Amino acid sequence: MLSVSRHIDAPADAVWKVLVDTDAWPKWGPTVSGGEVDGGVLTLGATGRVRTPVGVALPFTITEFEDGRRWAWSVAGVPATAHAVQPDGNGCRASMSAPWWAPAYLPVLAIALARIDEMVR
Questions:
Q1: Which end of the chain is more exposed for a tag (fewer CB within 10 A), N or C?
Q2: Residue 43: domain span
């Protein structure tokens, strides 16, 4: 996967809360207008729907999950992005990854990280 990362002057748990809060996804995700997870908890194997800015709802499945650190998903059956946070002394390092075949999506992920940075400070 291809990745972008950003140092954020906030605790890793604050960033993690934003990453797993489906109500917050539209606030930081430029390509997301809404999301809901079946059962209300994001965890390994969880399913749900993510809405695009044009109103299309796509099914997702959480394919990787390490509580407090990392989650990845497939959207409409296609491997999609991964999201991670790691303490780094003065705050944390947040990162997002896209599949190797989607390098054009990296600037979108960089925007998402900048928005998360603003949200948690």
A1: C
A2: 2-120
Residues 6+ apart with CB under 8 A from 63: 44, 72, 73, 74, 79
Of 52, 49, 72, the C-alpha closest to 60 is 49
Q: Crossing angle, helix 12-20 and helix 106-120, to 10 degrees?
A: 120
Residue with tokens 């998402």: 112
Match 């407090």 to its residue by tokens: 68
Coil, strand, or helix at residue 2?
strand
| pTM to 2 decimal places | 0.95
Phi and psi angles of residue 27, each rounded to the nearest 5 degrees, phi first: -75, -30
Measuring CA to CA, how many Å separate 96 from each of 23, 53, 109?
19, 20, 6
Region of residue 55 (left: phi > 0; alpha: psi -120 to 50; beta: else): left
CATH number at residue 61: 3.30.530.20
